[in-house]
Description:
Blueprint: H1 11-42, H2 47-58, H3 60-74, H4 77-100, H5 106-134, H6 140-169, H7 171-191, H8 209-218, H9 221-236, H10 240-251, H11 256-279, H12 285-303, H13 308-335, H14 342-355, H15 357-370, H16 373-397, E1 402-404, E2 413-419, E3 422-428, H17 431-447
Antiparallel strand pairs: 1-2, 2-3
Amino acid sequence: MNTMFRSLAGVNYRIWFAGALISNIGTWMQRTAQDWFVLTELTDNDAAAVGVTMALQFGPALIIGPLAGIIADRMPGRRLLAITQVAQALLALALGLIIVLGIAELWMVYLLALGLGIATAVDAPARQTFVGELVGTADLPNAVALNSASFNTARLIGPAAAGLLTVLVGAGWVILINVLTFSAMLVALGLLREAELQPMQKAGRGRGQLRAGIRYVARRPDLVVVFTMVFLVGTFGFNFAIFTATMARVEFGRDAAEFGLLSSILAIGSVAGALLSARRERPRLRVIVLAAIGFAVSMVVAALMPTIELFALALIPLGFFALTMITSANAYVQTTTRASIRGRVMALYLTIFMGGTPIGAPVLGLVANELGARWAMGVGAVAGLMAALVAVLWMRARHNLRIRRHPADDPWWRLRVRYDGDDVERRALDLETATTEIAIVEAEARKT
Length: 448
């Protein structure tokens, strides 16, 4: 099978991919309809209210995300995902019904967004780590990238469909359609072949498991850099609902159909970025850095576009660089972390990524209200540049850390770094061990 789609050679991954695609389309339909309903029906084009809704939806990850990682490391992924899918379906049902019945108020949407955020916070690390049970270690980066491609293919279809249907039948019915799409994921989980799953070693009950995950990340300076980059861009850059909604409504005076179309056009670049990531044998830190720079430049270009047509075209490279960065970061963290602690590390990663939204979304909403949507996008561009700067400074401090494995089938990772005039070299069978040993050498050198 083509290198780009090699994970689809497995039956279990094909089943998962199909179920996730249908479910993700429904999720994007709900997000689009909900944000537009808050912006235009419950408020008078108040971008800050959209920001608060997003903050409540993603905020729980900041509080319970690390605990969700412990749950993911303990519980069978299949069972945990079934529970979270049912919970999200019930919350979507409640939201759709109050809108259709005409009794929705802003505080109700806020409350249901908070409930959805709690369910999503538990679901996210379980979903991320379960991919490792569907494919082997060698195909994990490819599977992570294809998951992103699925998510953004849904983003290509869902918002456009939601924008059109919102105009025709209303936001409430769009959200009720999403309730039905959750069944696709539940059916997929039921159809998976048990014998072909590759269950990871689960952690037993014990004290200090959360601290162990935090200590693990703290001992990995490369992970600290990636987490910092993801926090900056996730907090102030990945607030596309605010950017596209306010640009469509306030700057260009358009309705829900154009808003949905803009979100879908953004996904064109996102799908391309995810598929290109799927071709790579392994994720590289320099790709994450270059993508962050590309994200910042693309954000500025989009913010300066004078017409909605040119703005739409500028969203394509923006989506490309955004997904290249985040997919590469996700794959880097997963593939360099040992399986027994991966759930906790991915939970911390997702906490950093999604947990910044409660900070960034309201701030960007206020900036959009006071200074305009274009200035809000400028804040996102600055975040991308700051993220790249953090990584560049770290690399310079280590005099251009070299990480290589050549030829591709060589099992050994080789790391070389110049520290205080001396070359430190290590090789190991996994990148995690090599980077940890480099960090130990540097720590000992600083003591002397």
